[in-house]
Design a protein that fits this description.
Chain B: This is Multidrug ABC transporter ATP-binding protein. The structure holds 2 protein chains of 2 kinds. By secondary structure, chain A is α/β, with parallel strands linked by helices. Chain A contains 19 helices and 12 strands. Classes of the chains: A alpha/beta, B alpha/beta.
Chain lengths: 593, 573
C-alpha cells in the first residue's frame, strides 16, 4: 500500500506540470464517452422508427402517411455522435501521447542529473547492472504503462460511469438486470488475480534461479570444457528446468485464465439481458417497436458493460510494473547529494603543503578502515602508498578527492580543510589516474580533452606527446579522430591507460593521484607507462598508490599501510635498511639472484 | 516455424484439446447474435414459447463459452510450457556439446539471452497461438460468413470496411517501422551514455564534467522523447479511425435496411446481429495486427534459437575408453590464428616437454602464452602442425582421456555455487575427505578451509563472492590437482597469492606430484624461477628456451622483462 502511495507521489511530481493537458483530456474523454453511450439509444430509436414505418406501411390505411424522414434524421445524429467520439478521442490520445513521451523524458533526464549529484558511496554499494536497469527496464516499464494504461484508465472509468447513467435513464429494471452479474465477476477477478500474483511470484523466483544457473555455467564454459563437466552441467540444468516448468504452468494458467473468464462472463451477461429483455418486452406495456428498441439498446450496453472491467484487469500487471518502477527510480531520487560547504573558500593550488591529520574513516558504521592516519606532503613532493590488499591505500585516495568524507580528523591544504572548498574547486585542482582507464565513446581527441571540452587541438596533441601516446595515435588511419568505444575497443589496456594519462595532463592539476595505474598491464608495458607518469609527476605534488613497488622506488616518501594504520614511513633506502614489512614486500616481488 | 513443429507434435493431445475448446468458444461467441435474431423475430410475433426456449439455449451457450475458455487456457499452457521446457533443454544440451570456439563465436552472454529471453518469447507466442491466433481467423471467417448470411446484399459494406482498416494499418505500419528502428537506436545511445557514466562516475566527478555529461545525456534523451511522441501521435489516430470506419459501415447498413424494409422486413430484426458480426470482424482484424507484431518478434527469437541448434560443434573427439596418457607434451610447428583475426597468435611453435618437468612460459601481454596453454587442453585446434600429449596427437585422444590427463587452472578462477566439496567432486566424483585434504594441503588452501565452520562442506556463493581472490585461486588449484593429473597447467593461477604462499605451492607440487608435468604461465619472473625450463614468447613465436640463468645471460626479450622486475642492487644484502 505504501508502494502505491509513493508511486502516486512520484507520478504527481512529474504530472502536475501537465495539469492542463490532463484536464483537457478528461473533458474530451467525457465528451467522447457521452457520444458512445448515447449513440446506442439512437440506434434503438432508428430501429423503433423503422418498425413504426413498417407497421404504417403494411396498413393500407396509413401507408400514404408512412415516411422515412425521422429515420434518416436519427441515423444522421447517430453518425454525428460517432464522428464526435472519433474526433475527441483522437485529440485526447494525441495529448496523452505527448504527456507520456515528455514526462518519461523528464524522468530519464532527472534520473541522470540526480546520478551526477549523488555520492560515490551509492555507486560503490550498488551494482552497475542494478542501477542501469532503472534506465533500461524500470523507465521502460513506466513508459509502456503510461503509453497504454493512461488512456485506458481514462476511457474505462468514463465509459463505466457514462454507461451506468444512460442505462438507468433508459430503463431502471433492465439496468439492474445488466448489472446483476457484476459482483460474481468482481469476486472471480479478485480471486484469480490474487492466485495469479502468488503463482507468478513463484514462477519469477524459479526463472531467476534457472537464469542464474545458465549464466553461471555458460560464462564458465571454459572450466566446464577443460574439466569435462558437460554431463553434470546438463543434469543440474534439467533439475532447474523442470522446476520452472511446474511453477510457470500454474503462473501461466492463472494469469492467462482471467481474460477468457471475463469474456465468458460478458457472454453470459449478454445472454441474461437478451432473455430478460425479451420476456420484459412481451409482458410489459411497451409497443412492439419500443420493446424491440429496448432489447437492441440493452444488448449493446451488455456487450459494452464488461469492456471497462476487462481493460482494467488486463492492465493490472502493467500497472504493477509501473508502481515497482516508480519505487525503484524514486529510491535513487531520494539518495543524499554530495555535501557542498555553505560558503566556500577559494582554492587556487597548493602553496605549501597538504596535511592528512589523524584521519579515521569507515565505509560501514562500526567497521573502521583507517585508524588515525597522518601524512604530510610538501608542495612538489611525491608520496607513495604501499601495503597489502585491504590495507586502506585506495581509501586514502577516495578521501583526497572527497569521494568520501572523513569520520574524524581532517585533510587540509595550506591549513584549510578541503571540506570548506567547493567540490568543483577542489576537484579541478586534483587529478586522478585510475586503475581502470575508463574512456567514453567519442573520438580520441574528445577523450583527451574530456576534462576541458574547450581545449584546442594543440593542447590535445601536446598532452598526448607528454603521455607518450602521440606516435601511436598518429599511426592510426584516422589519427585523433579515431572513434573510441569502451565496449569493443581495439586499444590495449596499456594504450588506454596512456590516453587517460594524457587526459589528466591536459587539465594541469596541482595535486595528482595515481591509483594503481599500472596494475592491469605486463611489466614491460608498465615500464612505458612509468616513463609517462614520471614526466607528469615532475613538479607536481603527487600521491602514487602502487601494487608493484618497482614504480615508486624514487618517491620522496613511502608510506606503508597495513590494516588501516601506518606501520612504516621513509624513502626506499631507509625502509630497506629498516628491514621491516616493506623490505619483505620488496624481496617478495623482485627477482633477486 | 520449422524448429517449433516437432516440439508441438510432442504435445499433440493437449494441442487438439486446446484447439477444440477454442472452436467451441468461437461457436458460442458467434452463435449468440444468431439466437438474438431469432428472439427479435419472436418479439415481433409475440411468441413467448420460442423466447423461453431460445433463452435457455443462450444461457447454455454462454456457460459452454466460459468452460471452453478455461479449458483452452489450461491446455494452451500445457503446450506452451512443454515446448519451451523441451526447447530450452535441447538448446542447453546442444551448447554443452560446443567447442570453446563455438561458445566464443556466439559469446556466453548472447547464449544466455537465447536460452532465457528468446525461449520466453517463443513460450509467449505458443501460448498466444493456442489462445488467440487460432481464434482470430476462426472468428473472422465465422463472423464474415454469418454476416453475409444475415444480410447477403450488403457484402460490399463489409469488404469496404476491411479494405479501409487494412489500408490504414498498412500505411501507418510502414511509416512507423522507420520510427521503431530509430527508437531502438536512440535507446541504445541513451543507455550507452548512462552506462559509461556509471562506470566512469569517478572520472566524471574528478574532472568536474557533470554539466557537460548532463547536456550530452539530455540531447540523446530528447531525441528519444521526440521519436516516441511521434509514434504516439501515429497510434493516436489508429483506434478512432478504425471505430469511425466501423460505425460508418453500421450507418450505411442500417440505411440500406431502411430503404428496403418493405421488401425485406425480416432484416429489421437482423440489424443488431449484423452489427455484432461487424464488430467481431473489426476486432479480429485489429487483434490480428497486434499478433502479427508479436509473431514477428517471436520469429526473430526462433531464428536465433535455430542458429544455435544448427551449429555443429567445430571440434569432435574420437570415441574411446578413458585412460590417462603420459605427461609428455610436444608441439610440432604449430601455427594458430583466432577466428576473425588477421595475423596468427602463435606462429611455427615447436618444443617438447618430458613427463614430470616443470616448464615456465613468459612473455608480454598478447604474446600468446595463454593460447599456447589452451591448445594443450584442446580448447582450440591448431591451423597447422601437431600437438602431442603422451606421444599421441591430441586429436586422436578421446575427450575423457584428455580431460583426465590435463588439468587446466585459469587465472580467473571460477568455482560453481554449491559447496567446496561439491566443486572438488565434480572433477573426482569419489573423492574422500582425506583426498580433499591432501589436495588442499598442496594448494595451501587447507589453512583457511579448516577454519570455516563447515570446512569442506562450506558453501560457495555465486561468483564465489565469499572468498578472496587468493582463496579462490587456491581452491581452483585444489580442484585442479585432486585427480592427480599427468599434466597441470597453471595459467597465471597464482597471481593473487603472495610470494611466500606461491613458493609453498610450488614446493608441494614438486614433492607430492613428482610425475606430473607442470606448465606455469606467469607475469612475475619470480613465479618461474624454479622451472626446469622457461619458454620465452614474443609475438607468437618462441624466442627463448632455457633455464633462468641461461636466458638472463643470452636472451634479450627475457632480459627486458627481467630488468623491469629486478631488484635494485643497492641496499639489498
Amino acid at each position: 500500500m505504501s508502494d502505491l502511495k509513493n508511486a502516486s507521489k512520484y507520478y504527481w511530481h512529474y504530472f502536475k506540470r501537465y495539469w492542463f493537458g490532463f484536464a483537457m483530456t478528461a473533458i474530451l474523454i467525457g465528451i467522447s464517452t457521452a457520444c458512445i453511450v448515447i449513440a446506442p439509444t439512437y440506434l434503438g430509436r432508428a430501429v423503433s422508427e423503422l418498425t413504426t414505418y413498417l407497421q404504417h406501411w403494411s396498413n393500407v390505411a396509413t401507408r400514404s402517411s408512412a415516411n422515412l424522414g425521422t429515420f434518416h434524421k436519427t441515423l444522421l445524429v447517430y453518425l454525428g455522435l460517432y464522428l464526435g467520439d472519433a474526433g475527441t478521442l483522437f485529440i485526447a490520445s494525441m495529448i496523452l501521447a505527448r504527456i507520456t513521451a515528455y514526462s518519461t523524458g523528464t524522468m530519464r533526464v532527472g534520473l541522470f542529473r540526480k546520478m551526477q549529484r549523488m555520492q560515490v558511496q551509492y555507486f560503490d554499494s550498488h551494482s552497475d547492472g542494478d542501477i542501469l536497469a532503472r534506465y533500461t527496464s524500470d523507465l521502460d516499464n513506466i513508459f509502456n504503462a503510461l503509453n497504454q494504461a493512461l488512456i485506458e484508465i481514462f476511457l474505462s472509468v468514463a465509459q463505466f460511469i457514462g454507461l451506468l447513467i444512460v442505462m438507468f435513464n433508459q430503463n431502471t429494471t433492465m439496468a439492474w438486470v445488466t448489472m446483476a452479474s457484476t459482483p460474481v465477476a468482481l469476486i472471480i477477478a479478485a480471486v484469480v488475480m490474487k492466485k495469479a500474483g502468488v503463482a507468478v511470484n513463484h514462477q519469477q523466483d524459479d526463472i531467476g534461479r534457472l537464469n542464474g544457473y545458465i549464466n553461471e555455467q555458460v560464462t564458465a564454459q571454459k572450466v566446464i570444457i577443460t574439466n569435462g563437466l558437460q554431463k553434470d552441467s546438463v543434469k543440474g540444468f534439467l533439475k532447474h528446468n523442470q522446476k520452472v516448468r511446474e511453477s510457470a504452468m500454474s503462473g501461466q494458467i492463472w494469469s492467462g485464465v482471467l481474460n477468457p473468464l471475463m469474456q465468458g462472463m460478458s457472454l453470459l451477461n449478454t445472454a441474461i439481458v437478451i432473455f430478460f429483455g425479451s420476456w420484459f418486452a412481451l409482458n410489459g406495456t411497451l409497443s412492439t417497436g419500443a420493446a424491440l428498441a429496448l432489447v437492441v439498446v440493452f444488448v449493446n450496453y451488455a456487450q459494452q458493460y464488461y469492456q471497462p472491467i476487462m481493460s482494467l484487469t488486463s492492465l493490472y500487471g502493467m500497472i504493477q510494473l509501473a508502481i515497482t518502477g516508480a519505487r525503484r527510480v524514486d529510491e535513487v531520487r531520494n539518495q543524499p547529494d554530495e555535501v557542498e560547504p555553505a560558503d566556500s573558500k577559494k582554492l587556487s593550488g597548493i602553496k605549501n603543503e597538504l596535511q592528512i591529520d589523524d584521519v579515521h574513516f569507515s565505509y560501514l558504521p562500526g567497521k573502521e578502515i583507517l585508524h588515525g592516519v597522518s601524512i604530510s606532503v610538501h608542495k612538489g613532493e611525491m608520496v607513495a602508498l604501499v601495503g597489502p590488499t585491504g590495507s586502506g591505500k585506495t581509501t586514502v585516495m577516495n578521501l583526497l578527492n572527497r569521494f568520501y568524507d572523513v569520520d574524524s580528523g581532517s585533510i587540509t591544504i595550506d591549513g584549510m580543510d578541503i571540506r570548506d572548498f567547493s567540490l568543483k574547486d577542489l576537484r579541478e585542482n586534483v587529478g586522478i589516474v585510475l586503475q581502470d582507464p575508463q574512456l567514453f565513446s567519442g573520438t580520441i581527441a574528445d577523450n583527451i580533452r574530456f576534462g576541458d571540452p574547450k581545449a584546442n587541438m594543440e593542447q590535445v596533441i601536446d598532452s598526448a606527446k607528454q603521455a607518450n601516446i602521440h606516435d601511436f595515435i598518429t599511426s592510426l588511419p584516422n589519427g585523433y579522430e579515431t572513434f573510441v568505444s569502451d565496449e569493443q575497443s581495439v586499444f590495449s589496456a596499456g594504450q588506454k591507460q596512456l590516453m587517460s594519462i594524457a587526459r589528466t595532463i591536459l587539465t594541469n592539476p596541482q595535486l595528482l593521484i595515481l591509483d594503481e595505474a599500472t596494475s592491469n598491464v605486463d611489466t614491460v608495458t608498465e615500464a612505458n607507462i612509468q616513463a609517462a607518469m614520471d614526466r607528469v609527476i615532475q613538479g607536481r605534488t603527487s600521491f602514487v598508490i602502487a601494487h608493484r613497488l618497482k614504480t615508486i622506488l624514487n618517491a620522496d616518501k613511502i608510506v606503508v599501510l597495513k590494516d588501516g594504520s601506518i606501520i612504516e614511513q621513509g624513502n626506499h633506502e631507509a625502509l630497506l635498511a629498516e628491514d621491516g614489512f616493506y623490505a619483505g614486500l620488496y624481496r617478495n616481488q623482485m627477482v633477486t639472484d | 516455424m520449422k524448429v517449433l513443429m516437432p516440439y508441438i507434435k510432442r504435445y499433440r493431445k493437449d494441442a487438439y484439446i486446446a484447439i477444440v475448446s477454442v472452436i467451441a468458444l468461437v461457436f458460442a461467441t458467434l452463435w449468440q447474435p444468431r439466437l438474438l435474431q431469432v428472439i427479435m423475430n419472436a418479439i415481433l410475433k409475440g411468441d413467448k414459447n420460442v423466447i423461453f426456449q431460445q433463452g435457455i439455449i443462450l444461457i447454455i451457450l454462454a456457460v459452454i463459452g466460459i468452460i471452453a475458455g478455461v479449458v483452452n487456457t489450461i491446455y494452451s499452457a500445457h503446450v506452451a510450457l512443454g515446448v519451451a521446457t523441451d526447447l530450452r533443454a535441447d538448446l542447453y544440451s546442444k551448447v554443452q556439446t560446443f567447442a570453446y570456439a563455438d561458445v566464443e563465436k556466439f559469446s556466453a552472454s548472447n547464449l544466455v539471452v537465447r536460452m532465457t529471453n528468446d525461449i520466453n518469447q517463443v513460450q509467449q507466442i505458443v501460448m498466444a497461438g493456442f489462445q488467440q491466433i487460432s481464434r482470430i481467423p476462426l472468428l473472422f471467417i465465422g463472423a464474415f460468413i454469418l454476416a453475409m448470411v444475415t444480410m447477403p446484399q450488403q457484402w460490399w459494406v463489409l469488404i469496404a470496411m476491411m479494405a479501409i482498416v487494412l489500408g490504414v494499418s498498412w500505411y501507418s505500419y510502414k511509416k512507423m517501422s522507420n520510427y521503431f528502428a530509430k527508437t531502438q537506436q536512440y535507446i541504445e545511445d541513451v543507455n550507452t551514455v548512462a552506462r559509461e557514466n556509471l562506470m566512469g562516475i569517478r572520472v566524471v566527478k574528478s574532472f568536474v564534467q557533470e554539466p557537460h555529461e548532463i547536456s550530452k545525456f539530455s540531447k540523446a534523451s530528447d531525441r528519444l522523447t521526440k521519436v516516441t511522441a511521434k509514434i504516439g501521435y501515429n497510434f493516436a489516430i489508429l483506434m478512432p479511425a478504425f471505430f469511425l470506419t466501423a460505425n460508418i459501415a453500421v450507418v450505411i447498413a442500417i440505411y440500406i435496411v431502411g430503404q428496403n424494409v418493405t421488401v425485406h422486413p425480416t432484416y429489421l430484426a437482423a440489424i443488431t446481429s449484423f452489427i455484432s458480426y461487424l464488430m467481431q470482424i473489426l476486432f479480429a482484424v485489429i487483434n490480428g495486427g497486434f499478433l502479427m507484431i508479436m509473431a514477428s518478434r517471436a520469429n526473430i527469437s526462433l531464428g536465433r534459437i535455430d542458429e544455435v541448434m544448427e551449429t555443429d560443434p567445430s571440434m569432435t573427439y574420437v570415441k574411446g575408453d578413458s585412460k590417462p596418457v603420459a605427461g609428455d607434451i610436444e608441439f610440432d610447428h604449430v601455427t594458430f590464428t583466432y577466428p576473425g583475426d588477421d595475423s596468427p597468435t602463435l606462429e611455427d611453435v615447436s618444443f617438447t616437454v618430458k613427463a614430470g618437468e616443470m616448464i615456465g612460459i613468459v612473455g608480454a601481454t598478447g604474446s600468446g602464452k595463454t593460447t599456447l596453454a589452451q591448445l594443450i587442453a584442446r580448447l582450440y585446434d591448431p591451423d597447422e602442425g601437431v600437438i602431442k600429449v603422451g606421444g599421441t596427437d591430441v586429436k586422436q585422444l578421446s575427450e575423457e582421456s584428455l580431460r583426465e590427463t590435463v588439468a587446466y587452472v585459469l587465472q580467473r578462477s571460477t568455482l560453481f555455487s554449491g559447496t567446496i566439496s561439491a566443486n572438488l567432486r565434480q572433477v573426482k566424483s569419489d573423492a574422500t575427505t582425506s583426498q580433499m585434504q591432501w589436495a588442499a594441503n598442496i594448494a595451501q588452501a587447507s589453512e583457511f578451509i579448516e577454519r570455516l565452520p563447515l570446512t569442506y562442506d562450506a558453501p560457495v556463493e555465486e561468483r564465489s563472492s565469499n572468498f578472496s581472490g587468493g582463496q579462490k585461486q587456491r581452491l581452483s588449484i585444489t580442484r585442479g590437482i585432486i585427480a592427480k593429473p599427468k599434466i597441470l597447467i597453471l595459467d597465471d593461477a597464482t597471481s593473487a597469492l603472495d610470494a611466500q604462499s606461491e613458493k609453498l605451492v610450488q614446493e608441494a607440487l614438486d614433492k607430492d606430484l613428482t610425475e606430473t608435468t607442470t606448465v606455469v604461465i606467469a607475469e612475475k619472473i619470480s613465479s618461474i624461477l624454479r622451472a626446469d625450463r622457461i619458454l620465452v614468447l614474443d609475438n607468437g613465436r618462441i624466442v627463448g628456451n632455457g633455464n633462468h640463468k641461461e636466458l638472463v645471460d643470452s636472451n634479450s626479450v627475457y632480459q627486458k622483462i627481467y630488468l623491469t622486475q629486478k631488484a635494485r642492487e643497492e641496499g639489498m644484502s
